[in-house]
């Protein structure tokens, strides 16, 4: 009988190898390839880190990085670093935990979130000693069966987080599935479901008071609306950045809420509104085509230095945001409007990214330069570290290598149809972090069905 626990664990490994169980049930984190797991992390990282490309002088202007291969020099220079990061990430977060009560296999990061709902989920490491009854339970359920039950009615617009998303999204996804059973009973989707409300949303309104008849502080058309969680930038785990176009310039609004569920409900309400809006705008498009267009994360953000169009002005430190083909720069990360915006086209339209700065360039403080060549002028930037330089070049290269779509030639504000106004989330208070310049007066996010209060907060 001494061998029974060992036999149970071998059976458990067989269950773990079944289709569906090789990825985390909640974030889709894949199992590390066995070849990478066979080496110890230190050896794997050592073997990869020794292959990194040599440094190049910061001020020398390198050859274009948009060759026919689509990878370029920056891609090859980043390959080994990325692979090392891959080993580190996935060797420590493969599905090596299980929920005995739910019958699912999860990664370590999601297992910590399961521990926050102990009345629903009891987790155990697959490396522990297992009883035969527990192995039988896992064999009888598994990830695919659990998804068929707990995700049977997930709306097409609802955001399904991955392992790269913030903790807030992943935790509320887990709670929505297992604690609130939102995807088993459609009536529980009321806070964010446009179908349940029987209205569709075409704009979001900010007004100063729910009782006084005043013009709204802002009207955000769903046509250009985007929302992305920014906990680090805003300084709050529930921080959400809302962007929209105003007079063809990007306007930022930063909000957060004390209730994590409320904030995620707002996020999915915006996605629901965008989804139904696009269904009308593009009636022939499938759900699979529309869902990726609902909301988007920024491709890259961070500080760089920039100079003016004459290249003789001093370099100034600015916060940059790469939002698809829009490169925006701000004096402060929480500014309402960008100081400037640069459209990044494709290589077919003579856009190029170069590593380094022209030899005559002066006045920069950071030594890792980047040059963006456009049909009209060159844009010069400087990064603090070589790693930041590589990451920015990869982001630029990804956009430049992608052919432009017809709507991108027309700009970001095409003439799409307007819909009737309504709002989907109407409970709780939401605080306005910073809207640029003087703080707004107390404001409310209004809806046809109610309002959520917004209060000014101190800027960081």
Short description:
The protein is α+β, with helices and mostly antiparallel strands.
Chain-wise SSE layout:
Elements: H1 4-16, H2 34-37, H3 41-49, H4 72-91, E1 97-99, E2 104-106, H5 108-114, E3 123-125, H6 132-140, H7 143-150, H8 167-179, H9 194-197, E4 203-207, E5 218-221, E6 226-229, H10 231-234, E7 240-246, E8 249-256, H11 260-281, H12 287-290, E9 300-306, E10 316-323, E11 326-330, E12 340-343, E13 352-355, E14 368-373, E15 378-383, H13 386-400, H14 406-410, E16 431-434, E17 443-446, E18 451-454
Antiparallel strand pairs: 1-2, 1-3, 4-5, 4-17, 6-7, 7-8, 8-16, 9-10, 9-15, 10-11, 11-12, 13-14, 14-15, 17-18
Subcellular location: Cytoplasm
Organism: Collichthys lucidus (Big head croaker)
GO cellular component, one term: cytoplasm
CATH homologous superfamily title of the largest domain: Pleckstrin-homology domain (PH domain)/Phosphotyrosine-binding domain (PTB)
- By CATH, the topology of the largest domain is PH-domain like
In terms of quaternary structure, what is this?
A: single chain
The end-to-end span amounts to 62 Å
Protein name: Arf-GAP with dual PH domain-containing protein 1
InterPro entries: Arf-GAP_dual-PH_domain, ARFGAP/RecO, ArfGAP_dom, ArfGAP_dom_sf, PH-like_dom_sf, PH1_ADAP, PH2_ADAP, PH_domain
GO molecular function, one term: zinc ion binding
Region (Disordered): 48-78
Primary descriptors:
about 20% strand; alpha+beta; Annexin V, domain 1; zinc ion binding; 18 strands; about 450 residues; PH2_ADAP; repeat; GTPase activator activity; disordered C terminus
């Amino acid at each position: 009988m001494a061998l029974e626990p060992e036999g149970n664990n071998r059976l458990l490994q067989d269950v773990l190898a079944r289709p569906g169980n090789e990825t985390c049930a909640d974030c889709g984190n894949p199992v590390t390839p066995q070849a990478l797991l066979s080496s110890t992390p230190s050896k794997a990282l050592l073997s990869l880190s020794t292959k990194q490309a040599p440094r190049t002088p910061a001020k020398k202007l390198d050859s274009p990085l948009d060759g026919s291969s689509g990878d370029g020099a920056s891609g090859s220079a980043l390959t080994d670093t990325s692979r090392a990061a891959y080993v580190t990430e996935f060797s420590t977060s493969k599905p090596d935990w299980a929920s005995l009560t739910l019958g699912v296999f999860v990664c370590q990061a999601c297992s910590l979130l399961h521990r926050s709902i102990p009345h629903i989920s009891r987790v155990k490491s697959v490396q522990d000693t297992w009883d035969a009854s527990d192995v039988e339970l896992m064999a009888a359920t598994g990830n695919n069966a659990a998804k068929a039950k707990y995700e049977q009615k997930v709306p097409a617009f609802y955001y399904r987080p991955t392992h790269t998303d913030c903790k807030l999204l992943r935790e509320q996804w887990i709670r929505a599935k297992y604690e609130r059973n939102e995807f088993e009973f459609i009536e529980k989707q009321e806070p964010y479901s446009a179908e349940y409300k029987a209205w569709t949303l075409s704009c979001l309104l900010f007004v100063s008071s729910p009782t006084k008849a005043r013009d709204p502080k802002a009207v955000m058309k769903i046509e250009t609306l985007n929302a992305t969680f920014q906990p680090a930038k805003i300084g709050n785990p529930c921080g959400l950045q809302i962007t929209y176009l105003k007079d063809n310039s990007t306007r930022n609004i930063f909000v957060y809420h004390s209730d994590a569920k409320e904030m995620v409900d707002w996020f999915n309400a915006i996605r629901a509104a965008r989804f139904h809006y696009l269904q009308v705008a593009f009636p022939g498009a499938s759900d699979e085509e529309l869902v990726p267009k609902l909301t988007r994360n920024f491709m890259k953000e961070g500080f760089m230095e920039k100079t003016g169009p004459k290249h003789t002005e001093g370099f100034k430190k600015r916060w940059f945001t790469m939002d698809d083909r829009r490169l925006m720069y701000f004096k402060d990360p929480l500014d309402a409007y960008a100081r400037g915006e640069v459209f990044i086209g494709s290589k077919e339209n003579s856009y190029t990214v170069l590593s380094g700065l022209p030899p005559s360039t002066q006045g920069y403080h950071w030594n890792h330069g980047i040059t963006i060549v456009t049909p009209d002028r060159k844009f010069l930037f400087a990064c603090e570290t070589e790693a930041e330089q590589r990451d920015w070049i990869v982001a630029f290269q990804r956009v430049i290598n992608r052919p432009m779509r017809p709507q991108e030639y027309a700009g970001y504000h095409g003439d799409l149809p307007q819909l009737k106004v309504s709002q989907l989330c109407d409970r709780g208070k939401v605080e306005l972090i910073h809207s640029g310049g003087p703080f707004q007066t107390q404001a409310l996010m209004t809806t046809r069905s109610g309002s959520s209060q917004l209060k000014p907060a101190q800027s960081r």
